[in-house]
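ARCHIVE RECORD
Type: protein–small molecule complex
Small molecule: flavin-adenine dinucleotide
Source of inputs: curated submission
Record status: active
Notes field left blank by submitter.
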Amino acid sequence: GKLHDVLIIGGGAAGQSVAGSLLRRQPGLDIAIVEPRSEHYYQPGWTLVGGGVFERAETMRRMVDVMPREVHWYQAAASAFTPEQRQVVLEDGEKIGYRILVVAPGLTLDWDAIPGLRETLGRNGVTSNYLFDLAPYTWELVQNTRKGRAIFTQPAMPIKCAGAPQKAMYLSCDHWNRKGWLNNLDVEFCTAGAALFGVADYVPALQEYVGKYGINVNFQNNLIKVDGDARTAVFRVTDGEGNTSEVEKTFDMLHVCPPQRAPKFISESPLADAAGWIDLNPETLQHARYGDIFGLGDAGNTPNAKTAAAVRKQAPVVAENVLLALKGEAPKAIYDGYGSCPLTVERGKIVLAEFGYGGKLQPSFPSWLVEGTRPSRFAWLLKEKMLPWIYWNAMLKGHEWMAGPEILAHRPADHEVGEACDFGG
Ligand code: FAD
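STRUCTURE (tokenized, with ligand):
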């Protein structure tokens, strides 16, 4: 059968970045990627598509143009793992062998968890920036909704880019504010959570915008049903004592962030933890039970913000550790949990949330340039003009400087943090 030194599952932000990092470090390495799609998406751009700043086409490239030429591409979906045989099974039953496996298939948007939702997506005022096809409809609705009620929903964690539901709301409100329509609009944020943002340092700045735009925030309100034709949404509301009730609301515009879960072929595999995500060592990103498997990105169970920004730091750590593992050595590079969420609070300003494990703030810039907990113009320029370029030209291509000094600084020679894998059998 087929056998590769490194087999990567998923050619998204994470899979491509790891391939790029590996090839920079070791040109000519035998790498294969399993990826079914013909398109690669820059999902962080979708917030700006929904806000009328980017065209949708700017956020997509053909997979062939992103895939390194040296990599063998299986254009198929992986469907099962047999780690004891060191094999991955594809949909059509083909088996691919590996010496080291990197698993990065992203997460699944669970539209069907909310009855009525899928049928009305893209119609009846129901939209979501979480889909390439729908983000332009968000902007269309924002331009056409002059009165009535606009609801923005957020499901239970974990979700990718936890700030994205709010970003859509603030950019919409900014437009309505500039047009003078905000007074005629009842804007509601319905979140399954109990706080505006998971890291408390960023809440005051967000709270100011909630006040400025006159947004009604409804905590512990979980969307459970949508009727597009009737333009109603049903929420399960939990009160302070833990009692639940159901509340129905009419809407003119409904922006939904869907519930999210690990892909089925992961959660039903021996790679999963109890919640279904890939069970990883949070520092080395090596699998908790299989020394020859690594994972990263949205499908992992590491408790960082699920963002492309996290992937930017994870990919070089995985690349370093994969090369050590190929030599039979224990992993030494360490990921510190960095993730970032540029909160678009108005057109031209962003609250640049950057934090690691435990909500520890990890600003990339000196405070005279960006005060992370305050709205910043520089951070907007970063998001609009610089980050897309960095994504396509540096991160996916595995440029050394993307690693940052951290992963090496945390790597004393005698610090063994994982298991060497044994290629004996
Ligand atoms: P993905 O990039 O989703 O890639 C997964 C890949 O795996 C896909 O190509 C998929 O086709 C493939 N795959 C799936 N199943 C299989 C299978 N069975 N076999 C093989 N391959 C498979 N991040 C930020 O840093 N900043 C932001 O501002 C930001 N904003 C966001 C806004 C929105 C609206 C959204 C949706 C996301 C945002 N993100 C942001 C999050 C960011 O896009 C993700 O965290 C990032 O893409 C994760 O990378 P990944 O490779 O794990 O998953």
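CURATOR ANNOTATION: The radius of gyration is 22 Å.
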